[in-house]
Amino acid sequence: MTIILVPYHQDQPLPVGDIPVPAAVTVRAESSDPDPWLRIAAVQGAVAEAVGSAGARPVIFSGDCLVAGGVVAGVQRTGLDPGIVWFDGHADLHTFQTTTSGYPGGLSLRLVTGAHPEAYAGLFGLRPVPPERAVLVDARDTDPAEADYLATGAIRRVSVAQVDAGTAPPGPFVLHIDADVIDPGELPGLRFPAPGGPSGDDVLAAAGRLLATGWVVAVHVACPWWPADNLETADLRARFLSRLTAAIG
After folding, report:
1. Beta 8-9 vs 59-62: how paired, if at all?
2. Which of 77, 139, 175, 227 sits between 20 and 30 A of 148, alpha carbons compared?
């Protein structure tokens, strides 16, 4: 298992130690392009290169969900066409037209499944995942436009408790876990906390059921949190990531 660290939130480098994992590879992608989407694409291209050469089932840790596209593109470079299982406290299904915040991460899953290829997938060689091969897990904080899309689109939505081989997409898939799927009372300091979520134990158990299928070809863990402002928060994060890494390995 190769651990890859992508110490970026969108196109912005994170402080050293913000994501406390023992990485074998650290991705760097400096770009001074004035277009933020081109800077984001530079990060994704570097991620795809690292994942494509990492060997079997790499584990990627990053500062936001946009990196999932780079992970999928990297797996595609090995000759596979994976689906994706997306654990998240939010739906991440906005488009440029529906977003109310303008936050790029809120478009992440929609981008991975084909929206706005001129600003994302087409810039770093991602072949978008067909929506029918995407499963959204939890997403308790979902905006009306996202709910409308889920009601009419092909992406399936399930609870953490429903996750198993029967609800996963058939064949190989990338397992994406946004840390904010976990209740913020257990994991403080998240950028976008969504109260009422599952426990860390529940998320780890669900991930274990997916890993047991043998279909997981890469794991991406997004850590969209603010820098820890005390030792207790830093310790909680480090322990969670350690448990997750051990469960994957």
Report:
1. unpaired
2. 175
